[in-house]
Every structure is written in structure tokens, then in C-alpha cells.
Design goal:
Number of helices: 2
Helix content: over 70%
Strand content: under 5%
Structural class: mainly alpha
Largest sheet: none
Number of domains: 1
Distance between the termini: 73 Å
Order of helices and strands: HH
Radius of gyration: 26 Å
Length: 76
């Protein structure tokens, strides 16, 4: 008896139901993995811009006291 048949029997499911559930699970996991990869690539692509913005903000704040108002994004 195969592992699939054994698991189907242990969980009181038809073999086809077990395979359908496994396929759905696999597709969901693949979508999550692809989304994680897209997010990772997006963050890597934006890293230089984010660093430049942080450095620019840091230069604007040199010598200023760090109050709550300083951290609010303001348009000059």
C-alpha cells in the first residue's frame, strides 16, 4: 500500500480528496513563495533609494533636537 493510500485510510478520506487537498496546499505554498520573492526583490530594488532618503533626512536634521515633530514627514 502506498503512503498516499495509507494516509487516506488513516484520515478517512478518499484518495482523490487527499490528492486534491495536497494540490491546493502546494499551489497556495507556491503563491506565497512567489509573493515573498517579489517582495524581497522589491525591497532590494528600493534599498538605494531608501538609503539616499534616510541620508537626506539625516542631513536635514543635523543639529536639530529629535522631537516628535521632526519625524513627521513635511513638505518644504
Amino acid at each position: 500500500m502506498s503512503d498516499i493510500d495509507s494516509l487516506a485510510q488513516e484520515t478517512n478520506r478518499c484518495r482523490s480528496v487527499l490528492i486534491r487537498e495536497a494540490c491546493c496546499f502546494y499551489v497556495a505554498e507556491m503563491r506565497r513563495a512567489m509573493l515573498r520573492e517579489k517582495m524581497k526583490n522589491g525591497y532590494l530594488e528600493m534599498a538605494d533609494l531608501n538609503l539616499a532618503l534616510a541620508e537626506e533626512l539625516g542631513a536635514d536634521l543635523d543639529g536639530e533636537e529629535m522631537s516628535a515633530e521632526v519625524w513627521v514627514w513635511r513638505k518644504d
